[in-house]
Amino acid sequence: MNLIFEGVDTVAKVLLNSVPIGRTGNMFKRYSFDITSVVRDVNSLELRFQSPVLYAAQRSKAHTSYSVPPDCPPPVQRGQCHVNFIRKEQSSFSWDWGPSFPTQGIWKDVRIEAYNICHLNYFMFSPVYDNHTQEWSLEIESSFDVVSSKPVSGQVIVAIPKLQTQQTHSIELQPGERTVELFVKINKNVTVETWWPHGHGNQTGYNMTILFKLDGGLTIKKSAKVYFRTVELIEEPIEGSQGLSFYFKINGLPIFLKGSNWIPADSFQDRVSSDLLRLLLQSAVDANMNTLRVWGGGIYEQEEFYRLCDELGIMVWQDFMFACALYPTDRDFMNSVRAEVAHQVRRLKYHPSIIVWGGNNENEAALMMNWYNIPPRELHTYIKDYVVLYVKNIRKIVLAEDKTRPFIISSPTNGAESIKEGWLSLNPYDNNFGDVHFYDYISDCWNWKVFPKARFVSEYGYQSWPSFSTLEKVSSQEDWSYNSKFSLHRQHHANGNNEMLHQIGFHFKFPESTDPLQTFKDTIYLTQVMQAQCVKTETEFYRRSRSEIVDGQGYTMGALYWQLNDIWQAPSWASLEYGGKWKMLHYFARHFFAPLLPVGFEDQDVFFIYGVSDLRSDCEVKLTVRVHTWSSLEPQCSSETERFVLKAGTAVLLYKESVPVLLKNCGNCTRQSCVVSFYLSTDSQLVSPANYHFLSSLSESVGLHKAHVTAIISQQGDTFAFDLETSAVAPFVWLDVGSIPGRFSDNGFLMTEKTRTVLFYPWKPTSKSELEQCFRVTSLMDVY
C-alpha cells in the first residue's frame, strides 16, 4: 500500500498516524511512500512544513566549499534569497515582473494505492515515424509493481479503432518492478492524419485504449489520445552567412514560430482553473500565435495546460525549471533533480504540442557573460558544475527517456556551436547561431536597425502598465499616480517606470491634463501605445527577415516576445493583464502575427513594403498603398500594384519608393502631415490586416485634431457590435469597457475613415446597458 503525493510545495516531513514515513524536498517530483505497516482502519495524515526561505538559506550556508551565486535578487524585487538551493518555483521568491510569495502546502493530488497482485505505475507512449518505409508506429512503455510471489501473465490489447489498428501481445511479469515495452505498427492501409500547429492544419488526434488482462481476473484499462507528428531542429550551413540555421520543421515543413513566453498564471496555483487556462491559451491562438515557451523560472504546467495546447495547436518550448542562476551539484541536489526530470519527461512526453526541451533559462549566458563577477581562476568550477547538471544528468535522462524531440541546453544558446565549444559558447548571443534574447530600453524602438537579425529570437519586449480597471481592484485613491508608493512598489524592474517614459518621449508628448487621476490614466494609455508600437516594429523586423541574408545575417525563423501573461496587477512586459484582459499589444499581435502581412519600413529616405506569408500555399495578391493627411478622413491618394504570386512561407520585397517622391506625388503632403496605410488583397477581398507607417513622430504631427469618437452598441446573438463614428483621423483608438470580461475584434487601431464597426466578444454574459455604462473611448489627441 502506497501513499502518493503528486506534488508537495516543498520541504515537509510526512507522518501517518504520528509515525514519520518520509520527507519531501522537491516541488516538481512525485513522492510515493510505503505505508503497509503503518496504516489502520482510521488514519491521520500530517505534513509538517519547513519555511522554504529558511530551508534555502540553510542549504546555502551548508554549501561551504564555494558560493553559488546569485545570493539574493536585486533590491527592487523585494524578494527572498538563495532560491537556487531549493527545487521550487524559482519566481516564487520574486522576479522582475512578480511578487515574492514563497508558497508552501500540498499543491497537487494525494491518494492511496492498494494492491495485492500488481499495479500499473505509469504508462507512456511515443509515436515514431520511419522515413524509409513511411510508416507510423507506437512505442508503448508500461511500468508495473508486481507484489505477488509468483509471475503474473496475461495479455495486453492495444486498439486505435479509427486507424483500424488492434494488436494483442502476451506478457509475463516477474515479481518486482517490471517494465513492459510494446511496439505497435499502425495499419499502413489507413491514412494517418498528422497534428499540425495552429494556422498550418488540423490538430487531429486518435482515441487509443490499452487493456491488460492478467491472471486472476485482474484487468487494467487505460485510454489516451494519440497524436502523430514529427519535429526536427535544423542547424545547417547557410549560403552567404557564417554560422548555422536554427529552425523547426513540423512534419517536414519549416515553420516560423510566432508567439510569446508563458509564466505561472498565478502565485497561488490553486487559483489556476481550467477556465482561466483556456481563456489565456485561446487568447494566444486568437492573436495568431502558434508557440509558447514555458519559461524555466516557473513550473512544469498542469496536465490541462498541455491538453489545451494539443487541442489548440500551440507548440510548446518546454524549459526545465532552472533560471538566471548557477546551481549546486551536491549528491542530494542531483538525486532530487534526476528524479524530477525523469518524472516530468514521462509525464509530458506524449503531448505533441511539446516540440523541444530546454535545459535552462539564460544560465549559459549568466556564466559566459559573467553576470556574477566570478574571478577567472574560479570559473572552471562553475563550468564543471554546469556540464554535470545540464549535460551529464538532465540531457542524458531526456535523451534516454524521449527520442522524439530535440533537447537544447539553454536559452539563449548557440546550439550546435555551444556543444562544439564544450557546451558553453564564448558569446551565447551570437546572431549567427541558435537563439537570442534581446532587450534595449534606451534606443528608440521605432529604429529597426537596433534589433538583431538573428536566427531565432526567443525573448524580447518592452514594459507597459495594465489598465486602470485592473489596478483599481488592488489600490486606493492615494495610489493613483505614476510616482506613488504603490506605483514604485509594484514595479520590480530597476528604473522600469522611467524607461517607459523615456521610450514614450521619443515619439509622443506627455499628458497635459490638470486632473491628477486623468493624468495617471492617460500615462497608462501611453505606456500601452508605446509597448504595442515597439513590439510591433520589432516583430515585423523579425518576420520580414525570414527569407533573406543581409550583410551575412538573417533567416530569422522565430519571434517569441516576452511575455504573454501576468502573475499580478503590475507593470510588466505582458500583453495579457492579470485575469486575461487584452492590452493594446495583444490586439497588435493579432495583426503582426497574421498569416499574411505587409510590413513597411524606411531605410535612407526610401520606403519599402515586404509581403510576409505563413500560408501553406502560394497565393495571388495585390498591394494597395494609400496616403492620408492627418487633417482629412478622405485618402489623399491611393495606388495599387498588379496582381502577383506571393510564395508560401516567404518574405519578399513588394514595393519600393523614395519618401520625397511618394509625398510629392501626393498633393501637399509632408512627413509631418501625412501617414501611409497599406494592405494585401485577393480579388478585392481583404486578406491581410491594414498596416500603416508613420513618416514622423506623432509629437511632430501637423493637422491632427482632437477626434470626437462615438459608438452605437447593438446586440447580435452572443456578441455586441460597436458602430463607431469619428469626426477626425484618430490614431490608437482604444475602446474600453472596464472590468466587463471579453475582448474586441480590434482595438488600438488607426481610424482613417468616418465609420467603422468593431465587435465585442464577452467572456461572461453581459448586456447592452451594462456595456454602455462602462464604455470609454480614448484616442491619442484626448490626452493633450
UniProtKB/TrEMBL annotation:
It is an enzyme of class 3 (hydrolase). GO terms for cellular component: lysosome. Residues 704-782 form the Beta-mannosidase Ig-fold domain. Residues 248-411 form the Glycoside hydrolase family 2 catalytic domain. Residues 2-108 form the Beta-mannosidase-like galactose-binding domain. This is Beta-mannosidase. It comes from the Eukaryota.
